[in-house]
Specification:
56 residues; mainly beta; three-stranded antiparallel beta sheet; elongated
Length: 56
Amino acid sequence: MSSVAVGVDFGSQPVGLVLAETSTEQNQKIATILSLFVVPEHRGSGLGKTRRITKM
Protein backbone atom coordinates (compact mmCIF):
# COMPACT_ATOMS: atom_id res chain seq x y z
CA MET A 1 0.00 0.00 0.00
CA SER A 2 1.27 3.48 -0.88
CA SER A 3 0.12 6.98 -0.07
CA VAL A 4 -0.32 9.68 -2.68
CA ALA A 5 -1.18 13.38 -2.59
CA VAL A 6 -2.46 15.20 -5.67
CA GLY A 7 -2.85 18.95 -5.83
CA VAL A 8 -5.04 20.89 -8.25
CA ASP A 9 -4.10 24.40 -9.41
CA PHE A 10 -6.27 27.05 -11.04
CA GLY A 11 -3.82 29.26 -12.87
CA SER A 12 -1.01 29.67 -10.37
CA GLN A 13 -3.23 29.22 -7.29
CA PRO A 14 -3.51 25.89 -5.45
CA VAL A 15 -7.24 25.23 -5.03
CA GLY A 16 -7.57 21.55 -4.17
CA LEU A 17 -5.87 18.56 -2.62
CA VAL A 18 -6.69 14.86 -2.42
CA LEU A 19 -4.90 12.37 -0.18
CA ALA A 20 -5.28 8.67 -0.93
CA GLU A 21 -3.85 5.22 -0.37
CA THR A 22 -3.26 3.04 -3.40
CA SER A 23 -2.99 -0.72 -3.61
CA THR A 24 -3.37 -3.56 -6.07
CA GLU A 25 -6.00 -6.25 -5.62
CA GLN A 26 -6.59 -9.02 -8.15
CA ASN A 27 -4.37 -7.18 -10.67
CA GLN A 28 -6.45 -3.99 -10.41
CA LYS A 29 -5.25 -0.70 -8.99
CA ILE A 30 -7.41 0.58 -6.15
CA ALA A 31 -7.32 4.08 -4.65
CA THR A 32 -9.04 4.86 -1.38
CA ILE A 33 -9.59 8.59 -0.87
CA LEU A 34 -8.68 9.57 2.66
CA SER A 35 -9.22 13.31 2.36
CA LEU A 36 -10.47 15.72 -0.29
CA PHE A 37 -10.25 19.50 0.06
CA VAL A 38 -11.30 22.27 -2.31
CA VAL A 39 -11.16 25.96 -1.39
CA PRO A 40 -14.69 27.33 -0.89
CA GLU A 41 -14.57 29.57 -3.98
CA HIS A 42 -14.06 26.53 -6.27
CA ARG A 43 -16.44 24.03 -4.65
CA GLY A 44 -19.05 22.71 -7.05
CA SER A 45 -16.91 23.53 -10.10
CA GLY A 46 -16.00 19.92 -10.94
CA LEU A 47 -12.40 19.87 -9.67
CA GLY A 48 -12.95 16.38 -8.24
CA LYS A 49 -13.63 15.14 -11.76
CA THR A 50 -10.36 16.37 -13.25
CA ARG A 51 -8.16 13.89 -15.09
CA ARG A 52 -5.39 14.22 -12.52
CA ILE A 53 -7.63 12.95 -9.74
CA THR A 54 -9.63 10.37 -11.70
CA LYS A 55 -6.43 8.82 -13.12
CA MET A 56 -4.76 8.57 -9.72
